[in-house]
Amino acid sequence: MFVWLVPHGYDIAGTVGIVAINFILDGIIGGGILIWRLVVATWYIPLTIYRLLTADKSATPQINIEKGFKSYE
Fold it and tell me: Where does the sequence pass through the membrane (predicted)?
């Protein structure tokens, strides 16, 4: 996501200033999203490791091959 302010009716200094504000706002928004994603990752990585270590071994899926299977050839 980004913010884009279109400079119209400004001289060159005003245009450069608005473009600079665009980059500053984009950096703030992107930094917030980056921090949020890092917080979520630091929560889910230990949670996933915990779930893998404490998983019920009897709950693993098993492949059952039926006896007398007839193929349709």
Answer: 12-36
